[in-house]
Specification:
Structural class: alpha/beta
Helix content: 25-40%
Order of helices and strands: EHHEHEHEHEHEHEEHHHEHEEEH
Largest sheet: 7 strands, mixed
Number of strands: 12
Radius of gyration: 21 Å
Number of helices: 12
CATH topology of the largest domain: Aspartate Aminotransferase, domain 2
Strand content: 5-15%
Distance between the termini: 55 Å
CATH class of the largest domain: Alpha Beta
Shape: globular
Number of domains: 2
């Protein structure tokens, strides 16, 4: 019998379930399961990838200074307070490794992003899921769950997979009420989809107990290159850089992200199209009897009568060449998360869902 065992908590982690992808032989299949930008990266990012391809035999920058400076200039921040990672996932992992361990608790909301729980368990800490209020982050429930064991609190704002968000006053109330030795982490993966929203950066600037994560995977269309960043006090950044590997981001990833930041027109176009089509699809599905909360992200969470109906619709859509996301593993078995695609994709979703509902009458 093997005596090599992982540390406590590792075997409690289920293998991560990514959104399904089309198989190579499948034709006319639309993937709407991973909240990817249907328009892809900007031309400026593609050109940067091409320009830097010949230099991949050289190691990349270790301090990501150029990208950090571009992020700082774009969002009015200090580059010394920024860290870059392999997606915001890696920064979430850094935070758990640095600040939580055996005997500590990590709070997240009941429908929060799966990596909060996973990263907490990897670090040896105990994840603690707090109830939401009708799929919205409940500040009072989080504050009520805090104890002297609480070291990290993760909230996504807007949240994944619900698409809902809370306002700045509620976030500040949460930051004001948490224990002194606890760090509030604001996951802003979908912040770019909200007009005139800083993802919580202004709150980070005012205090040391708040940290923000962001990503290039969603709005900027660079999910395949895995680039994220975090913003916090110099003290926190210094700690996280002691964990970060020296060459965690590739030359191509750094170049693509840097160029993406300079294409504001493209970001505006993608945001505007997402907002228009998100409203259209939400209203169209509502007219069919499928409600969803107001989403501030690039997806909607459609609610069905029950888990069986949601699962049956998923299969129907899949057979019709539309891959959406089942979210039973997020404690939402009666829902399907549907990424907002381009106009043709949204119309196909509406038509296919209508056919499904007619088939079960």
């Amino acid at each position: 019998m093997l005596k090599i065992e992982p540390k406590k908590g590792i075997l409690d982690i289920a293998l991560y379930q990514a959104g399904s992808s089309p198989r190579p032989a499948e034709q006319n299949v639309i993937k709407l399961s991973s909240n990817e930008n249907p328009y892809g990266p900007s031309k400026k990012s593609i050109d940067a990838i091409t320009r830097h391809a010949a230099g991949v035999h050289l190691y990349p920058s270790t301090n990501h200074l150029e990208l950090r400076q571009s992020i700082a200039a774009r969002f009015g921040l200090s580059d010394e307070n920024i860290i870059c990672g392999v997606g915001s996932d890696e920064i979430i992992s850094f935070l758990c490794q640095a600040f939580a361990g055996p005997g500590d608790e990590v709070i997240h909301t009941e429908h929060g992003f799966a990596m909060y729980r996973i990263s907490a368990l990897v670090a040896g800490a105990q994840p603690f899921a707090v109830p939401e209020n009708n799929r919205h982050t409940d500040v009072d429930a989080i504050l009520g769950a805090c104890s002297n064991k609480t070291k990290l609190i993760f909230i996504a704002n807007p949240n994944n997979p619900t698409g809902t968000m809370i306002d700045a006053a509620e976030v500040q109330r949460l930051a004001d009420g948490i224990p002194e030795n606890c760090l509030l982490v604001l996951d802003g993966a979908y912040a770019e989809y909200v007009s005139n929203f800083d993802g919580g950066a202004s709150l980070v600037q005012d205090r040391e107990n708040v940290f923000m994560t962001r990503t290039f995977s969603k709005m900027y269309g660079l999910g395949g290159l895995r680039i994220g960043w975090g913003y916090g006090s110099k003290h926190i950044i210094d700690i996280l850089n002691r964990i970060r590997g020296p060459f965690n981001l590739s030359t191509i990833a750094l170049a693509a992200a840097n160029s993406a930041l300079g294409d504001l027109d493209y970001v505006d176009k993608c945001r505007n199209e997402n907002s228009r089509l998100r409203e259209w699809l939400s209203n169209a599905l509502s007219n069919l009897g499928l409600e969803s909360d107001k989403s501030d992200a690039n997806f909607i969470l459609a609610r069905f009568k029950g888990a069986e109906e949601a699962a049956a619709c998923y299969k129907f859509l899949y057979a019709d060449g539309l891959i959406v996301r089942q979210v039973a593993n997020y404690n939402l078995p009666n829902c399907l998360r549907i990424t907002i695609g381009d106009e043709a994709a949204c119309k196909r979703v509406h038509s296919s869902v209508r056919s499904f509902l007619e088939s079960i009458k």
